[in-house]
């Protein structure tokens, strides 16, 4: 898409979007009334009506979440057009890896994210923290670069969860849910106040567990999940101008073996020489030339077929495996998984001080802390009845703290924010391989980042209708990598760091990046019911060190350099252009938002696996992050809510998410497809078309006082995604239908639900991977497609009482 073409598109779209708004402006003004359906968001660090803020933002309130049966941020994402969730990577498809792709900005590695997460505006280091929020007041999804206000890792957007604040009155609620697949949930809250409500608190608790919806070879279930969560919030108001909020959260996820399988390009037989019974069946339907030019190799082309091989995994904790697991050192014993599955513990705390100097000046001080550990043990070959099993472990901890101060101001026609923020984050990981021929537990060195930002915004109302805004952030990112607990001596043969002795925990390398991140916006308010806006912004996604290759063998470093791996990847950059419209029609019964965007994505950071030979001649794999290319991203988004009458409400949303690769390099894909030219292809992992529609019936129950009912049905659609940049293999389109029926009588409410009504088995994620056998015969190139599987049909009943 050329700049001229895009400018013409913006101009024509602005005219088209303005037509209904102009018509609305010409109509006589309706009397001012309170808008009971208004939603307030904090997309620009201050409270604004979602229909007047010139930012593309989607928000779901607590009532909307409850009515749709959505219990987590990932649930919001799954039901939102223009967003994909990928939970398949490195041989695992579980809750340890849930990567959000917004507007097609899809990184391939969990530690390189393009969407940042916030709780009450305070940054969190891991998206799993957000899945632990119990009964939030609101979830906001901000689309497009948010770097000017939110800084680090808001390259494609940001997600902010707002907690419910205590009212100061004594009360609470209790909810119990029972469903098939042994699903059980107990959730409750209690709140109260002291000193006439000047000090208020709210406590919440959650216990949830369910069996998986797939069967393993031994009759056990796959996809078992359980979570526990506790939160506490205290709000103090010493004076009418001063508010202090303190929030804390603890969460624990303890999951069983995930539901996943592979579609293979090769048969796996009982014997290493290719003879014997076929244990896993190839579903190859095409072939490509070998990189060496010596022949061809099979692959799976087109839309993925239904998988043939069983969904299964080794589940046996043998004495030999327990002995090997006893040597793990990265995490304390209470944080280490002792079964096949996932164990994750997380803690979060933050505080907010809000002081109102006057009607013109308001000060906010924020500080937050996050700590998370997870330990995941999987059967890497993913086939439980095979004579060959490969237990594989991933351990990781992350910790960060942040602080921010900002001053909101308003003087006449000028308003805005000035402030500064600081974030310090650290993480460290370990990998354990416990196959008979591959025994290792390797702890990487610690990685650290420090980010300082100074930001501002200024919005000037030129006329009552026309406003212009300019925002910016000067950001300094420093990344560093440290030696592990084992001292290391780098020889002159080391290809990545200066030769010398590096003690345990010694600094291996450090790099600082400085960027100015601007955003400019122009908005025109035709009336209180219609506005259009234009915006231009830039974003930066900071780099990270490839510390995993620094202390590796000569063979690994040579293979890494051949794959183009540097000590650190350059920062990603994006320039985004956007036009949008928002408003209300039909006396406010119809609400709409629409936007078009075009973004240039430079220096994409992606993860690549590269093979190397061990000292014994076996082919092994290593991974690193590197800049793989550039792409143009463009699309259209629309949302509307229409209250047909007092009985029926319809809400719908749709997104077109387009992309075009300009340059791209990936040694593994080149070896697989015998080409290095990916120009004009679409980004992988992105649904080009997506939509959702919900219809709600409801109202008062005649003959009963203080009683209401509702019936809601949702349809969520996401088109299939390419598994990689070659655009050879894609997943099928996915259609999911959910329904919920409920009623409330005074303090009591009850509902029944059915999710995935038609028991759709369409895969939820797919990524290229490897075929595993006892000799690792198929590691020289990608040889399988790993699948993340959806949850099958579930139903249940929920009872709730308010006290």
Characterize the structure shown.
Belongs to the TonB-dependent receptor family. Residues 1-23 form the signal peptide. Residues 346-757 form the TonB-dependent receptor-like beta-barrel domain. The structure is a single chain. The protein is mainly beta. It has a single domain (3-802), classed as Maltoporin, Chain A (Beta Barrel). It is 8% helix and 52% strand. It contains 8 helices and 47 strands. The chain has a 22-stranded antiparallel barrel. Strands 3-8-9-6-7 form a 5-stranded mixed sheet. The longest helix has 24 residues, at 3-26. The radius of gyration is 27 Å and the shape is globular. The relative contact order is 0.13.
Query: What low-confidence regions span 5 or more consecutive residues with pLDDT below 50?
Result: 1-34
Number of domains: 1
**H/I helix tally:** 8
Architecture, according to CATH? Answer: Beta Barrel
Determine the structural class based on helices, strands and strand pairing.
mainly beta
Count all strands and give the number.
47
Give the radius of gyration.
27 Å
Q: What's the story with the biggest beta sheet? A: 22 strands, antiparallel, barrel
What is the arithmetic mean of pLDDT? 86
Question: What's the N-to-C terminus distance?
Answer: 58 Å
Shape: globular
* The named CATH superfamily: TonB-dependent receptor, beta-barrel domain
Q: Approximately how much helix is present in the residues? A: under 10%
- CATH-defined fold name: Maltoporin, Chain A
Supply the key terms.
22-stranded antiparallel beta barrel; mainly beta; single chain; 803 residues
């Amino acid at each position: 898409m050329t700049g001229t073409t895009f400018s013409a598109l913006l101009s024509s779209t602005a005219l088209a979007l303005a037509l209904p708004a102009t018509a609305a402006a010409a109509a006589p003004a309706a009397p001012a009334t309170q808008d009971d359906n208004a939603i307030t968001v904090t997309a620009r660090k201050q409270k604004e009506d979602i229909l007047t803020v010139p930012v593309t933002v989607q928000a779901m309130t607590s009532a909307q979440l409850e009515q749709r049966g959505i219990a987590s941020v990932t649930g919001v994402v799954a039901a939102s057009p223009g967003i994909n969730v990928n939970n398949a990577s490195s041989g695992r498809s579980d809750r340890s890896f849930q990567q959000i792709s917004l507007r097609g900005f899809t990184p391939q590695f969990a530690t390189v994210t393009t969407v940042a997460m916030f709780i009450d505006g305070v940054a969190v280091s891991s998206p799993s923290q957000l899945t632990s929020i119990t009964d939030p007041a609101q979830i906001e999804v901000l689309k497009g670069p948010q770097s000017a206000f939110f800084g680090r890792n808001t390259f494609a957007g940001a997600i902010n969860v707002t907690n419910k604040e205590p009212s100061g009155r004594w009360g609470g609620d209790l909810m119990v849910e029972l469903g098939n697949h042994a699903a059980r949930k107990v959730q409750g809250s209690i709140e109260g106040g002291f000193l006439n409500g000047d000090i208020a608190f709210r406590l919440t608790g959650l216990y949830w567990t369910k069996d998986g919806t797939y069967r393993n070879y031994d009759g056990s279930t796959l996809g078992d999940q359980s979570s526990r969560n506790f939160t506490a919030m205290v709000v103090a108001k010493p004076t009418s101008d001063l508010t202090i909020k303190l929030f804390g959260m603890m969460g624990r996820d303890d999951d069983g073996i995930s539901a996943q399988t592979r579609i293979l390009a090769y048969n796996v037989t009982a014997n290493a020489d290719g003879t014997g019974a076929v244990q896993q069946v190839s579903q190859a339907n095409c072939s490509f030339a070998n990189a060496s030019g010596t022949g061809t190799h099979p692959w799976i082309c087109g839309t993925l077929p239904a998988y043939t091989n069983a969904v299964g995994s080794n589940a046996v904790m043998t004495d030999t495996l327990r002995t090997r697991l006893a040597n793990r050192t990265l995490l304390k014993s209470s944080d280490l998984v002792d079964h096949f599955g996932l164990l994750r513990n997380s803690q979060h705390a933050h505080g907010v001080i809000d002081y109102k100097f006057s009607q013109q000046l308001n000060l906010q001080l924020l500080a937050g802390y996050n700590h998370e550990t997870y330990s995941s043990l999987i059967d890497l070959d993913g086939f439980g009845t095979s004579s060959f099993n490969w237990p594989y472990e991933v351990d990781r901890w992350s910790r960060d703290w942040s602080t921010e101060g900002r001053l909101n101001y308003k003087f006449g026609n000028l308003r805005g924010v000035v402030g500064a923020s600081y974030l310090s984050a650290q993480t460290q990981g370990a990998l354990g391989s416990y196959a008979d021929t591959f025994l290792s537990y390797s702890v990487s060195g610690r990685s650290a980042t420090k980010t300082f930002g100074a930001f501002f915004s200024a919005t000037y109302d030129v006329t009552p209708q026309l406003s212009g805004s300019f925002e910016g952030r000067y950001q300094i990112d420093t990344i560093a990598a440290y030696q592990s607990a084992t001292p290391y001596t780098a020889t002159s043969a080391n290809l990545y760091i200066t030769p010398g002795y590096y003690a345990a925990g010694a600094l291996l390398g450090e790099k600082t990046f400085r960027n100015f991140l601007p955003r400019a916006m122009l908005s025109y308010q035709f009336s209180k019911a219609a506005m259009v806006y234009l915006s231009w912004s830039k974003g930066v996604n900071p780099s990270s060190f490839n510390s995993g290759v620094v202390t590796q063998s000569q063979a690994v470093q040579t293979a890494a350099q051949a794959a183009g791996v540097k000590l650190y990847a350059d920062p990603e950059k994006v320039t985004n252009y956007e036009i949008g419209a928002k408003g209300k029609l039909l006396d406010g019964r119809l609400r709409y938002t629409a936007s078009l965007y075009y973004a240039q994505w430079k220096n994409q950071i992606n993860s690549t696996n590269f093979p190397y030979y061990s000292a014994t001649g076996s082919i092994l794999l290593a991974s690193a992050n590197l800049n793989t290319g550039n792409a143009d991203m463009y699309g259209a988004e629309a949302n509307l809510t229409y209250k047909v009458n007092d009985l029926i409400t319809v809400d719908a949303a749709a997104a077109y998410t387009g992309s075009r690769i300009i340059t791209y390099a990936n040694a593994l894909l080149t070896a697989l497809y015998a080409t290095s030219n990916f120009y004009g292809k679409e980004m992988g992992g992105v649904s080009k078309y997506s939509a959702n529609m919900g219809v709600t019936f409801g109202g008062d129950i005649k003959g009963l006082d203080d009683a209401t009912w509702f019936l809601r049905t949702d349809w969520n659609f996401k088109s299939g995604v390419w598994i990689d940049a070659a655009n050879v293999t894609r997943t099928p389109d996915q259609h999911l239908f959910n329904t919920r029926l409920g009623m409330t009588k005074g303090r009591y409410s009850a509902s029944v639900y059915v999710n995935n009504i038609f028991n759709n088995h369409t895969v939820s994620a797919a990524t290229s991977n490897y075929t595993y056998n006892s000799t690792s015969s198929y590691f020289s190139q990608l040889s399988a497609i790993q699948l993340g599987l959806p949850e099958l049909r579930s139903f249940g009943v929920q009872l709730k009482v308010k006290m």
